[in-house]
Amino acid sequence: MVSFEQARRLVEQHAAGVCRGEVETVDLLAGLGRVLAEGVVADRDFPPFDRATRDGYAVRAADLAKLPARLEVVGEVKAGDWPEPGACAVGRGQAVGIMTGAPLPAGADAVVMVEHTSLGDAPAGKSAAELVEVHRSVRQGENFVPRGAEARAGQLLLDRGRRLDHAGIAIAASAGKSRVQVFRKPRVAVLSTGDEVVEIDATPGPAQIRNSNFYSLAAQVQNAGGEAVRLPIAPDQRERLRASIEQALIEQALIEEGLACDLLLLTGGVSMGKYDLVEQVLGELKAEFYFTGAEIQPGRPVVFGSCGAGAPARADSEAAAGTRARAPAPHKKYFFGLPGNPVSTMVTFELFARPMIEALAGMTPQRLIFLRARLKSEIRTKTGLKKFLPAILSGEFENAEVELARWQGSGDIATLARANCYVVIPPDRERIEAGEWVSLMMRCGADLGG
Ligand code: AMP
Ligand code: MG
Contact 217/348 with Cβ under 8 angstroms? Predict the structure, then answer.
């Protein structure tokens, strides 16, 4: 048994040594949520010209020392125009009308906002549009972004290993990347275990339970950048369970077809019950365990290990205290044994399996960051375990409040589906008062409601 933090570090250390998959090229939008296998480089300066950020007049800041200043309007540049220096330039005492997104004409060193100007009285022989009165001064460099200030041509805009979100898509689009190279999604085999578990399209018998864990895990795997593969449900019988696990780990036929899975997730059968055989069977298969149990609730029996490298098992304490994990041997396959209670399955996935999938997907695993919110009503718990309790975050703007969802324990998916986050309670806290700030872990994609 290791602490939550030790368990997390162990996963991170192993994740740091895994190999990325092959590379494929996809259309830019199909790259959303995928991990870049190439760096994206600026093909030109960003911005490619001195870009006005306001509608107004391109001016020489020195001309506005005395206010109001009257300037002669000698032209206009709108977005998309190119002001040829010979034809459109700002001389002393002059201004050029300019729109947001347009290039600054030669001679100008600032833009004054149109709100700070008025059209002056036209002297004889001039039209009103040819004269502007400016009521505020500007600093040199104000209201435009100099060419190349955001990025220089050739500069790296997005690193290899970065997961593409809408902002990444935007910058790749700006650099003209209509197709991007991404890593293949890792294939994650999910083996649900339990005599009572049946597939969701079967009619469950009176004591049977639908295999919801495959679906929650598949959704979480997808969200972490992988692809889930559903294996047939394994019963709680040593021989049959062993055959299923062996097949999932070795998958000779699939290896030959290049379809072998990169990670195995097992659910159920890791607790202390007479028919919880997963750990025992993995032991028989010479698995190396990095931890068997973490001081968390829900999810205490969670198991992390690997099979296939033939390495001797290490004690939890040694592994936890140990330095960097060894790089994996070629056919080493990591597995997580997640407890079968649906909420435990989801929480332990988020805490431990996610960083491994992110690494297999080619990313640097994301740090786990807890947010803070004010507690709405008092919490009393037992000490000893770090708790991740389903909770409801509400409120608006800066007034986020959180309260525990009233639940029936870690099998209660109905309550979990109504909750949107977990309150994180340190192992030494017994009582937390209403109004205290508490940590919380958001549930990915949770509905924050109205
Ligand atoms: P176990 O971890 O095998 O002791 O299972 C704990 C609880 O989770 C039991 O109530 C199981 O029926 C339930 N459970 C196990 N596997 C699944 C599954 N795949 N889908 C939904 N519930 C499950
Ligand atoms: Mg079971």
Answer: no
Determine the distance from the C-alpha atom of residue 25 to the mean position of all C-alpha atoms in its chain, rounded to a whole number. Answer: 21
Q: Could you read off the pLDDT of 214-223 as tens digits, one per residue?
A: 999 999 999 9
pLDDT tens digits, 6-51: 999 999 999 999 998 999 999 999 999 999 999 999 999 999 999 9
The number of the ligand 1 atom at minimal distance from the alpha carbon of 339 is 2
pLDDT at 447: 85
The yes-or-no verdict on residue 318 having pLDDT over 70 is: no
Across 266-271, average pLDDT? 97
Q: In what order do the strands lie in the sheet with 333-338?
A: 227-230, 187-192, 263-267, 333-338, 303-307, 288-292
The CB of 365 under 6 Å from ligand 1? The reply is no
One-letter identity of residue 81: D
| CB contact at 8 A, 150 and 143 | no
For residue 269, give the ligand 1 atom closest to its CA: 3
Ligand 2 centroid to 194 CA: how many Å? 4
CA of 12 to the centre of ligand 1 (A): 27
The per-residue DSSP string of 177-203 comes to -SEEEEEPPPEEEEEEB-TTEE-TTSP
Q: What is the pLDDT of residue 119?
A: 87
Which atom of ligand 1 is nearest the CA belonging to 267? Answer: 16
For residue 308, the model assigns a pLDDT of 83
* Dihedral, CA of residue 32, residue 35, residue 38 and residue 43, to nearest 10: 30
Cα 341 to averaged position of ligand 1 atoms, centre (Å): 5
| Residues 294/300, Cβ–Cβ less than 8 Å | yes
pLDDT at 323: 44
Question: What percent of the chain stands above pLDDT 70?
Answer: 90
Residues 6+ apart with CB under 8 A from 62: none
Q: How far apart are CA 307 and CA 407, in angstroms?
A: 37
Q: Does ligand 1 lie within 6 Å of residue 194's CB atom?
A: yes
Best mutation site among 192, 237, 266, 267 for ligand 1, i.e. most ligand atoms within 8 A of its Cβ?
267
